[in-house]
Amino acid sequence: MSDAAADLVFTAALAFGRGRDLGCVGSCRSLAVAHRRRGKPMTQQASAAHPAPGRRPELVPDPHVEAARIAAVRRYDVLDTPPDGAFDRVAAMAARLFDVPVATVTIVDTDRIWFKATHGLQGVKEIGRDPGLCGSAILRDDALVVPDTLRDPVAAKNPLVAGEMGVRFYAAAPIITPDGHRLGTVNVLDIKPRSITEDDIATLADLAAIVLDELELRLSALCALRTEQERREVERAAREQAENDKTAIAAFASTLQRTLLPPALPVVPGLELACHYHTASVHDVGGDFYDVFPVGGSRWAFFLGDVCGKGPEAATVTALARHTLRVAAQIDPDPVTVLRTLNTALLTDVTAGSRFCTALFGLLAPRGDGGFSVTVATGGHPPAYHVRPDDSGAVWVKAVRPKGGMLIGAFPQAHFAQTTFLLAPGEGLFLYTDGLTEARTPQGAMLGEDGLTGFLHQRTGPLTAAALMEDAVTLLASMPDGAGDDVALLALSVSDPETAPDTGVATTAHTTAAPEHFGRE
């Protein structure tokens, strides 16, 4: 404790013990200020300065150990904390045990002495750290006891002893951490000389140890709290990073997906085209693909397929398949020949790995009556559906299923089959990937080919590509869990030459799944 602290403490003690007015604080504080100007800074470690015989040595501080002591004070994080009943009880107990008017628990900072608890002293939170009794006490390993300050050569020079306050007795035990740092002191003060026994000194040391125990408990709680806060901060940062990563992955997947699909369907004279693409997850690139493009001689080619799996590896195969189909069709648009070329490409290209795909490839040739001759080859893909109105006003549905079409990229000698039929005005062709037929109905069963066939039979609207696509998307949306896989849809219908003989219509829709409905991970 500094002289300024003792000044305030003993002013209260005098008021308690002698009945004096606290007005003497100002004059005593002036003495303390004068003493501060003469004093030297003090640190924790002390060494003897070879005193004369019979005199208590004045200790010399070690700056390096003082720096470590201050670090320990910071570690316990007790400075400027609210009052605590445990420490207040220690101060009150010290006052009762030693029968003194004032007892305090102090923590010594770099330039101040802060009161964690006081008994017999009100309204004082901290004072400047000046050379004095408390400052001397933290430089010792044992208790500092000054029975009569006027007879002690070090204490006698203190203005609190020589001045108006007349401090005559002081005893303090340092609060020492397990690693040997002195955080502060437990102090008892009186205005008359007195002596204490070895047992009393041990009691004062025990009180200081109790204070340290409370500080250790508080430090453990603080460490646990900080650890929990750090853990939560790490988790929060991880969640934020994960969300950022998901957003970046979704953006990347969306961008990559767009490069694997035609940006828009072409306008084909005499035909109406419509498509829809729905990815099961915003974080994965789908493996479904489709395209419509010219191959010369007024003919048009179309295809729709599904690569095994999804993600970057499937995207590699998708890109290879689309490129191969388009290039092969320019050389020889025969559907079976095109699928054979794709089969060879998937088996020989190292980037394809062991992945395979299914696909339908078709060739459209216009006829003089406004219709189109359609040749379709299949490579392990679900059937397309040829739809037309019958004489009764119902919808006639026929599966276009060439016999013998095998998976593409699975076997070197794979066999592919094709069939040819007429697509007349007012008729349509509907192609899809298995994400549609594998979607679950409200009853929990897969829609399947029978369910899709029944749905097409029950349609009552016009058999245009746009109407077919709109109804199919509505059907998919009616499934409780949507689609668990990617879905690609392509519809073609022949326009009525009397209403639009030389025009075509193309409708393109690319969508991604909402995470709460599709692509649950």
What does the model show?
- This protein is an alpha+beta fold and 521 residues long.
- Helix content is 36%, strand content 24%.
- Strands 9, 14, 15, 17, 18, 19 and 20 form a seven-stranded mixed β-sheet that branches.
- A hairpin with a 5-residue loop joins strand 12 and strand 13.
- The protein starts with a helix and ends in a 9-residue tail after the last strand.
Summary keywords:
521 residues; alpha+beta; seven-stranded mixed sheet; six-stranded antiparallel sheet; 12 helices; 24% strand; rod-shaped; disordered N terminus
Assign a percent range to the helix content.
25-40%
Low-confidence stretches: 1-54, 513-521
Distance between the termini: 65 Å
Largest sheet composition: 7 strands, mixed
Measured on Cα atoms, how large is the radius of gyration?
Answer: 46 Å
Helix-strand category: alpha+beta
Task: Kindly report the average pLDDT value.
Answer: 80
Contiguous helical run count: 12
Shape: rod-shaped
Strand content: 15-25%
DSSP, total strands: 20
Topology of helices and strands:
Layout: H1 3-17, H2 25-38, E1 45-47, E2 60-62, H3 63-76, H4 85-98, E3 102-108, E4 112-119, E5 126-128, H5 133-137, E6 144-146, H6 159-162, E7 169-176, E8 182-190, H7 198-259, E9 271-279, E10 288-296, E11 299-307, H8 312-331, H9 335-348, E12 357-366, E13 372-379, E14 384-389, E15 395-400, E16 417-423, E17 428-432, H10 434-437, H11 448-457, H12 465-477, E18 487-494, E19 505-507, E20 510-512
Parallel strand pairs: 9-19, 9-20
Antiparallel strand pairs: 1-2, 3-4, 3-8, 4-5, 6-7, 7-8, 9-18, 10-11, 11-12, 12-13, 13-16, 14-15, 14-17, 17-18
